Amino acid sequence: MKRRILSLLLAVSLLWGAVPGARAAGTVAGQALGSVAATLRLDFPQHLEEIRERDVQVALFRDGERLGRLSLGWEDGGARMGGYPAAVALRNEDGGELGGGSWPGYLDVTVENLPQGDYVLEFTGEGYVPYTQRLTLRDYSQHVTLGTGDGTFTLGDVDGDGAVDRRDRELLSEALGSEDRRDLERFDLDGSGEIDVTDLAYLTRAMSAGGGAAVRNTAMLCPPVDTAAMLDALLRSGGSVLSGSLDDLFLSNGQTVTLSGGDGALELDIPLADPVELEELQIVSPEGPGAILAGCAGVEYQDGVREELPFDLSLPEGIYAIGPVPGSSVISIPLGRRVPVKEIVISVTRTEGGGYAVAESIRFLQEIVPDNPAPPNSEIKNLTAQAGDGRVDLRWGELPNVSGYRVDYRLRQGGEARSQTVGVPRAEITGLENLKTYLFTVTPVDGGWQGRTSPALAVTPQPAKVPDAPDMVSVGALDGALTVSWKASKNATYYEVYYRQEGNGAFQRFGGQLSGTGTTVNGLTNGVTYEIYILAGNSMGLSGPSRTALGTPESPDYSRPEGIPAAGVLDWQDIERVWLGDPNNVSPSAYTPDRPFRPENMADGDYSTHWTSHAYGDGNWWDSKQVFASFSRPVDLSAVIWVPRLDGGYAANLRLYAVTVWRQGDNLNGPGTLIAPEPGRGGSASDASTWLPVQGNPVSTKFAVMPFEPVTDVVQIAVSIEQRAYTAVSLSELMFMEYDPSRSLQDDISALFAGGLDGPHTELVPGVTQGTVDALRQRLNSDERDYYLHTAAMADELDLAEALFLRQPTGSRVLTGLDGRSGAADSAKYSQGGSELQPLGAAAGAGEEITVYAGIPGNQTVTVYASQYNAEASQWLQKIGTLRNGRNVLTVPKIGSQNTPRGGSLYVTCGGENPEQVSLTVRRAVKIPLLELSGWYALSDTARRDRVREYAAELETYVSAQGVTDGAKTTDWHNVTEISLPTVLLSLPALAVLNGSGRTQAEREETLYNNVLAWEDVMHICKTTQGIDSTYGSSDMTTRQNIRCMQMFSGAFMYAAGSHIGIGYGSCAGMVCGKPISAMGAESGVNGLFGWGIAHEIGHNMDKLGRAEITNNLYSLMVQTYDGKRNTLPSRLENSGKYPAIFTKTAQGLPGDSNNVFVQLGLYWQLHLAYDGGDSPMDFYNRFFKAWKAGTYFGGETGYADKVARTASAVADRNLEEFFTRWGMVLSDGTRAALANYPAEPRAVWYLSDQSRRARLEGTQPAAGSASLTASLTADNEITLTITPSFTGAIQGYEIRRSGDGGQTFRPIGFTAEATYQDVVGSANHRTYTYEIAAYDILGNAVGTARSNEVRVAYDKTLPESAYTVSRSGDTVTFTLLEETAVSGLKVKNAPENGDFSVEIQDGAGETRTARAGSFGQGNQAVDDRSSYLTYFQKPGAGPEDTRIWTYDAKTVTVTGIPSSAADGDIQLISYAGDNVAFLEGGSVGILAEDYPYLTSSGSAAIPAGTLVITGTYRGDPLYQTVKIEGRFTRTAVNGDGTEAEDAVEIRFLDGRALLFAEVPEDGAVSDISDGLFLFIPNVQREAELQGEQSDCGGENLLPSQMRAVLSRTDLPDSAESQRVTAETLWTDTPGGTDLPAIVLED
Question: Mean pLDDT over residues 1202-1216, rounded?
């Protein structure tokens, strides 16, 4: 056959064609001089010493003569090459100077002042593929960029044969670990001092290296500037040339020119004789006086558009800087693009020193050399983003010959990095947090290849609605001001604060929009109560108001605190002297020079003076806080009254105290006598853990009481204080209660009760009469009351005595025995804690006093807490005080700032031994309904039901008596009740419990009884799951889950906070309606254990894995599926259809977690499905969490994935490496090695569902059978797979696998349970795909596989219609693109048979060029869709015979000659042509008819006549490509009995070489072409050896039975190695026999 070829050239010969360089540099004999420069990228990190030892050099040749050679391992700014100045510079990977660094990223070489002509740069080095680059200095200086990891100066040629191939890898592999000096010199590629996997990775990557050198035209050697006209314009403007010549400015000859602008600014008008294409303008001045600093460059483009480009190198006063070029000041003025310019006007407004300007050169740069150059077509450009609500939409410029793009993203402030792979140049990233900034990068990928990652783009998702109203508003009082703080609202960017006097007038805004979550509202009136609310805002508007809070500004009240007795108190007038035990323990920040600290501040009658100790911020916070006082006479004492500072929150800092006294006659310098705590009861002055808790609730009362046993004849006393945390201790006044036995009213009242003051106050002593009580009441109402503390409590005691005497209800809440609840003990045993709270069965309002009579016989510590009903999570519980034996008077604090009644339930905690011996009587509080069933398992069923019955009756009576209404049910603190169960404490609204438990007494009793059993079921499940075996009656955990009515955050209905679980009012009734498993119907598909939400929150409190909203849901699933038998109820994953997404995640096996928490939950749930049996349905996680909490199997690993995988594999006794890898976990080498010691897991556990476990427990047998698979192309890049199954048994589904290498390797891409599957292959084009399915049965067993036919994806890649708008006028069609986009062709469906057309393209800068003109009747270049007309764009000015494909950046595309009958959708723009390859139709294999001579870089060569050749066409750039022929070789063997054995098929590439031919255009610049020809010449001799044939066997008999052509991107056309496949043909039967056609090549 014949094929006419206009021009034939080997692709390798094109490497030596004319290609561009670097910098203009003067003249010789009237000829402009230039420069040649190169940047060598170190694509693989190498130590500087390694580069030196490998002798990396560059040589420069001119006309075959070597001018010189330079080593690139040493900085040298003064080198010479053939007499020409040269320099070598080393830069780091960021492009900056290497300095003293050892890991360069770039090596630069520059040779200047070169005459015009042809040059060659030759790069050599031991272990590198030698590289030669031809350059021509003519109009521009030249710069070449190459790399050690692309197809140029490639690192890894360890055998020195000029290529990096398998032999190099074999040699390096054999040398791994060697310490031989010669091996290290040869194989230690990175210079680390060892031959390791890093070196092997370098070489493996280099084997597929591709991409060529980038040659750029830089500075114009002789710009067409009319310097005579320029001088005339300068003189006419009043300027002048003080020295030098204007010609010197454009020759870069080192001569300076001094210019003056006269009286005005210097203006240089630079007219150009012809338009010049520029990308950047540079003005170079020598540093020093006259250096140009600021001004403006006015540029007029060829199209007449003008642009002003200001520049300014000025520095602030006192700032000095050095530029990138030592000794020179370089002003770079980028034009933003390469564009023709016809005139430039430079205005200079500022110079160094002023008065005149000195310039060295003005350079015209056609192309800019990037600081960090990347290989061509490997870097993403034009990455843009659109922020949405919780999402970001990314778009970028499409790249040719890639199969997809990887998007990496993470929070800017840090966090887990995530990835998403897409097949198109856009991505939608969801599941992001609004108003948080994310960093996004995009990397092109194609199989194992990846290009350069784009620069990071910062994007902040924006909400699509107004924010939620702020929560947790807290108000604090200041002098004339209020502090206000609140919880940040989701999606808020600012806040507004509104306030008014309570109930008076309109609200007014304080300040403007606030970015923080707190402020101080000033200018208020002390003593006036204000209402405050907050609004949250963002770009969408303002939220609704927060709940209203109240606050009252107060100036510090320095008067004597109320409650201190008016008589019987020794104060400053009775104290002789007061001093500090450590006189240096004084806070330096608490005093000013005019008001320094004086010891007498502590007892001077002035409550505004004080002592304040060191705190954490002052340092030495641990110093002694002991205050001494002496008396002028012996005194009898019973208590200390300590008044802290009355400004700020100092009262809260007092915690413990100790008291030491010296009595009359004692040595005042001796140790004294410790009276509190009592030494006889274990007290120690040096051990603060034995000290006594401060009494009196000083936060509310403003003073603390520190009682002790009365002591007489005291002359000196010391009081020691232990503070809370690291806070300061303060004291404004020190006082003492004087002991007087004659003032016995308190003792006389206490004597009315059995046990006295320390008794429980539940019965009177014999002999008490009404008269006794009346007499004492009369004394209390006399002046005698002035001598006592807590007179209100004394009055209540008399009321109590009277009620007992009259046998009337007392209203007391009496508790005999407490529970010992210790979170520390539970955590030590089980690594799990809960709430220590026990309800007192009483409630109180803020500011009210309560009395607690405590009988604490041992070392128990009993602490009382107040709570706020229906509170916010940040302000709901506050400690009132620690109880001591006897009477404790406590003041209930105000908790929170909301404008609702303040108050709620009271609680205690109890630590120490024998808590059952503690007794408490609570007075002056509201007695609330308390269902105390914590001892459920110790009670008989009758006793249990009696308590439930009594509670139900009390509850109804209480709600009625307290007048709780529906309108106030969420604010009235009386609406509280407590249900105390063995493992749960329910703190709920009384009205909700009453209504939720039923409508009759009997119904409520039954409901509440069953509810206890249901909660025990729930906690049994949760504890067993977490490895806590003691449940139900054997439970030995003391803490409980406290579930309480709380205000909800916006959008929530429950939350977990560790110490409690908050639920909204509407969920409270449901907490008393649980149904135990024992009451579950046999056919019921759901249990009655309170639903998903509460188990979800318990899971948060019990979660040990820490993957919030994922691993806590293990507990939800366990509760949801619990049936008391095998636990096979449907899970949420099953009910909500999550398994298809779970199987897709595990099929693809991509690294990282799923963004869907329920999909990710599947990882953990599948381990239960795989390994829990029917008799022990919670065994796996029971054992898992025991091991996890103990760290049994961690093996020293600290990474989460490693610890989980090791523990799970050990518990399952299976190697689960593939399971966790499928779920995206990356395991360490050590973990993989450890897992390999376990037996293999034969099942695909990652494909198990709820039904899988049911089937296993039911004894379902494995499935069997087979399936067939067909693949068909149903859209441009969509392939539909059709599965025809033939199985017995239950099939879970099919894993879909795709192969892009002819079926040699397959990668899972998805999973389906359906008979069809659609695969969209993304950006890949002109590629072939084969598919395979693997069927898995319901048990996870692999049943069988089936393979499809091969399908080729080949289509014209057009721009989507969403990328442009179309307008029409007559036969003109105009595409207006939404953004500047690359286009390379026009496609017209249903095109006319003839008629002329033309295409004009305008870029973003407004420049218009003709991209193509022709006729529909000829030149159709369509290949993939031959029913349409396709034409590729040409280089501007190229002739019709030019077959190069030119890509334009277009903003508008105007096509003329389109008939009006053509539909808009039939007219399309081609984005990138993309590579393609095909065999010649009718003659893919033949015999060359005549010798064919051709040129190579080393001379001439010829293909002899009679040579067997394989022929075809390709589309692409021959400089970057090579073609290989892949074959299927079939061999038929004969059995011993003479029968034929099954055919053996070998798939491999044919041995041989490829020649790529392309037409060389007139300008010599070959790029992408549309009709290249390739010849592949098999190596017959080598194929005979490979196939075991005789060497004289005919070549046609050595061809494979089937073959296909594979086109790869490479810069080494004569190498068998390639970078990556970009196109391939389908397999075709190979022509054979002796009648192959003759191939004739004609010029």
Answer: 98
Q: What is the DSSP string of 893-904?
A: PP---BSS--EE
How many Cα neighbours within 13 Å face the side chain of 959? 18
Average pLDDT, the chain: 89
**Residue by residue, what is the 3-state secondary structure of 686-745?**
CCHHHCEECECCHHHHCCEEEEEEEEEEEEEEEEEEEECCCCCCEECEEEEEECCCCCCH
Record the tokens describing residue 695, joined without a space.
């009494």
**Within 13 Å, how many C-alpha atoms sit on residue 81's CB side?**
29
Secondary structure (3-state) at 99? coil
Say whether 1471 sits in a helix, a strand or coil: coil
Q: Give ∠ CA 722-723-728 in degrees, rounded to 5.
A: 130
Cα 883 to Cα 193: distance, rounded to the nearest angstrom: 70
Q: How far apart are CA 271 and CA 250, in angstroms?
A: 13
Residues 6+ apart with CB under 8 A from 1466: 1388, 1389, 1390
Q: What angle do CA 1016, 1021, 1026 make, to 5 degrees?
A: 125
Structure tokens at 1281: 């797979």
Distance CA 671, CA 687 (A): 15
What confidence tens digit (pLDDT) does each residue in 939-978 have? 999 999 999 999 999 999 999 999 999 899 999 999 999 9
Round to whole Å and give the CA distance between 645 and 1471: 77
What does 636-692 look like in DSSP terms, one character per residue? EEEEEEEE--SSTTGGGGEEEEEEEEEETTS-TTS--EEEES-GGGT--TT-GGGSE
What is the C-alpha separation between 1029 and 1409, in angstroms, rounded?
A: 81
pLDDT in tens, 188-223: 998 889 998 788 878 877 887 777 788 999 998 889
Average pLDDT in the 318-336 region? 72
Question: Can you name the residues that pair with 1576 across neighbouring β-strands?
Answer: 1510, 1554
Could you tell me if 834 and 1101 are in contact, meaning their C-beta atoms sit under 8 angstroms apart? yes
675, 627 contact by CB (below 8 A): no
- The position carrying tokens 């694509």 is 43
| Among 379, 484, 392, 481, CA closest to 435 | 392
- Averaging pLDDT over each range in 1457-1461, 1534-1538, 1625-1629, which range is the top one? 1457-1461
Average pLDDT over residues 755-765: 92
Amino acid (1-letter code) at residue 294: A
Give the whole-angstrom CA distance, residue 247 versus residue 251. 7
Half-sphere exposure of 496 (CA within 13 A, CB side): 15
Q: What is the pTM (predicted TM-score) of this model?
A: 0.73
Percent of the chain exceeding pLDDT 70 equals: 94
Distance between CA atoms of residues 1563 and 1561, nearest Å: 6
**Pairing of β 1061-1063 and β 1041-1045:** parallel
**678 phi/psi in degrees, rounded to 5:** -75, 125
Strands (E), 166-256: 214-220, 240-243
The Cβ-side half-sphere exposure at 910, using a 13 Å CA radius, reads: 26
- Here the tokens at position 649 are 């929150």
Burial of 1082 (0-12, 13-18, 19+ CB in 10 A): exposed
Give the model confidence (pLDDT) of 136-176 as tens digits: 998 899 999 999 988 899 999 999 999 998 899 899 989 98
C-alpha distance across the termini of the chain, in Å: 15
H or E, element range at 976: none
Beta carbons within 8 Å of 316's beta carbon, 6+ residues apart:
none
Q: Cβ contacts of residue 705 below 8 Å, gap of 6+?
A: 639, 640, 641, 642, 694, 695, 696, 737, 789
Q: How confident is the model at residue 1274 (pLDDT cuts 50, 70, 90)?
A: very high
Over the range 1140-1172, which residues count as b (16 or more CB within 10 Å of their CB) and which as e? bbbbbbbbbeeebbbebbbbbbbbbbbbbbbbb
d(CA 1182, CA 1188) in angstroms, rounded, equals 10
